Hints:
six-stranded mixed sheet, alpha/beta, Rossmann fold, 2 domains, 10 helices, four-stranded parallel sheet
Amino acid sequence: MKIYSPIQQLKHPSRINIWVKRDDLIDPYISGNKWRKLKYILEEAKNLKKDHLVTFGGAYSNHLVATAAACAGNGLKSTAFVRGEAVENEMLLLCRLFGMRLIFTDRRDYKEKDKLFRRHFAEDSCAFFVDEGGAGIAAVKGCAELIAELPPDIDHLFCAAGTGTTAAGLLKGILESGSKTILHVVPVLKGGDFIADEIARYTGSSDQLILHTDYHFGGYGKTQPGLISFIKRFVAEEGMLIDPVYTAKLFFAIDDLVKKQYFKTTDKIAAVHTGGLLGIWGMKEKFRGDG
């Protein structure tokens, strides 16, 4: 299936070439890495004659919206275990509109996803377990395909990471292609060093992987005034929307590294825009006013 994901150069005020792989343009609801992760999950479910995807996420999860939309578009049913107390918001409204059933689950039970799945769907032979965020081998395979869509002369490829699944796919694609590209991963949560181990589960260790763990701004889903100011400036100057949870931290990291003269002026840098833009609704209050 042909997708729309062009490569666009940033107007960054430096002599360094910075490009963006616009995976956010693939689909308004199944965008970025969500589309790539779900591609082979959907294929596997259909091959196994499963017509009901059951997955997991928080109340502002882009993964839930993407799964709901993907299932609706492919004639499948969808259910999600939503972490925490019952709430209503823009993201969950979209999930419901796409036909997804929502089961709100307390945080203790949510930690044991396999047990939750068996408790509710042990008798449903058509139910197919999809881990939170779509994590797994199928998702890694889908994300690896992005590398073949990039120019071969990319020196540094950047992506944001929460679990490491997307990064694992990118590194897998780099290694399998024989490319010399260095993959730079920006963990969006505090203590993100563990992501290197998660990536290694799928690819083994590699000297073509670098983690930048100082750009989490307090942790997953956390922001600071400096990050919000950066988002406002970046979006207004580049005409490209980014989100506070993932891509803002990614582009802030690149901007900071450029200022610190981390790269050679001849380096060609690319960043993967992984979409997830709907998640900005979970932080809309932080953007009130002109500050």
